[in-house]
Amino acid sequence: MQSPLDTFEYFFLKLTVLFAALVAISIGLMALLIPLNLFIIKAHIGSMWWLNGAIEYALFFGVFAGAPWVLQQGAHVRVDVLTSSLSKDAALILDDIINLIGAFICIILCFYGTRAGITEFIDQTLPDKDLRVPNWIVVAFFAFSFLMLAIEFLLRFRKNRLLTVGVDKIKAEVGF
Q1: Most CB contacts within 10 A, which of 38, 43, 76, 146?
Q2: What's this model's pTM, rounded to 2 decimal places?
């Protein structure tokens, strides 16, 4: 029988995969729309005036939406010089300490992002751009992504995780 934490982790994994897929789609759309926009401009047909702003937002949202998935996969930037020189038990303890510090930092960033998002919502501020997405939406997504990162850092403490990413799998699939 599944525990509530297993159910939560299952849906959390599905959400991170959804965000990763949306990021991949947005990158693909950028690759198609940038040359199309250049063609439209050079052909004197017009332009996609909103494209530069949309790409800025897509890159911002993409970095933050994809971060929990990257952390899940163990594909984030990692320096293993110290952990490779430690014993297995010491390396696991260090990994737990790093996960705890990461969760703490992400919770702080989520808290301040939430406060800033509420302030932006009350003030109804808009950026000075062609494509205007209210600032509170951008800041709220920042806070939400750090909440997701904090959850992922805390889920890394589970010994019976639904997601298993072993060291061999990481070395085989990530990097050069």
Answers
A1: 146
A2: 0.81
